[in-house]
């Protein structure tokens, strides 16, 4: 197979190419079984074969993008990093203002009749931008970190978070991971982490009180009231402690913050006691959110259906096309595709799919180890972390570890934007791999030439005879 890949000019890590083909095959099998449920959602206006052909077209487009992007030089991606981030911010703003609203969130936008998710494009641009900035700057001053990292990257994360809480959190985790991998000073990294946690808590409090961002209430509804309150409180306290730990100057600021917080608590208690109208309305809003969440979580939820599908699959599964939960799960072909894999093909297939993503992460680490530039190593690891984290979240939702987040399984779930953008991701990774392999071959040739120089005749004879 390796000779075949070389003949048709497929360069880069051969194991990654094989895993991609494996995921494509799994995707075709599972979407073929789910095509009937897709047709049912559309009222059988289109046949089941239409959705299968559509999915094959997406996979073909993704494969073409992999091939095209892996043939491009790595330097081109570095040169486009800043432009890509600016375009992503513009697309996210347009999506937030003019995008198609689904479940009180605007994630889709149409340009020239093409409908796509701008957040998928932002994932790629934010990794390229961070890799480029980390290579070009030493970052000895936190002001530079704020200006070149926190503000632009924070803007992207905030715009994504407003319309999709889970995607925004994934962005944040990826960005912190990239900064750690890229060698940003620990004190700067901790400051960014602390500030991010505090901002996250303020957004959560804003969402459940004044209703902005709207998706906060939805996210809270996927946890019970105690879990949500505990999570938000823990994150807020962690953020404050981190900032206090890394900067003694901030102690004075947080003394003021602490006094202000105590004053607010006392004001809230007195307001409830004396029935002050603004305080009573504030408390009513929180109570309404909790009651709404409790009402929405009664009965069998889609998360329960996913766990039923996984539990009923057993060790070897029910067999291709024999899933019963795909007709009951609203997104069995996308958000809960891992549950469908386990139900039809068993626990063995589920573990095999997860191992495939782990192999991808391992190969990305091996590629990064060969790289001589920060941009290349950070890019390949950052992009692969996006793929692997997304896969783990999708699987975690199916088995009940995580609340429902709307994350697809890369290269397996049905969805044009996800498949095409993942194709670009793997194309860039393989481009870095191709460049790293070329550098290694050149290095080996140079070392061999040094051994066989006329000045080292004796060493040449000894090595030849050996």
What's the short story on this structure?
The protein is mainly alpha-helical. It has helices at residues 2-7, 14-41, 48-70, 74-79, 81-98, 118-136, 142-163, 165-181, 186-209, 215-221, 225-246, 250-274, 277-296, 302-313, 337-370, 374-399, 416-451, 457-465, and strands spanning 100-102, 105-111, 114-117. Residues 293-298 and 456-466 have low confidence and may be disordered.
Summarize the biggest pleated sheet.
3 strands, antiparallel
Helical residues, percent: over 70%
Separate helix tally: 18
Mean pLDDT: 78
Q: How many angstroms does the end-to-end distance come to?
A: 33 Å
Apparent shape: globular
What is the element string, with H for helices and E for strands? HHHHHEEEHHHHHHHHHHHHH
Low-confidence stretches: 293-298, 456-466
Going across the major beta sheet, what is the strand order? 1-2-3
Please characterize this protein's 3D structure:
Mean pLDDT is 78; it is low at 293-298 and 456-466. The chain is globular, with a radius of gyration of 25 Å. By secondary structure, the protein is mostly helical. The protein has 18 helices and 3 strands. A 3-stranded antiparallel β-sheet has the order 1-2-3. It has helices at 2-7, 14-41, 48-70, 74-79, 81-98, 118-136, 142-163, 165-181, 186-209, 215-221, 225-246, 250-274, 277-296, 302-313, 337-370, 374-399, 416-451, 457-465; strands at residues 100-102, 105-111, 114-117. The chain has a domain at 1-71 and 305-446.
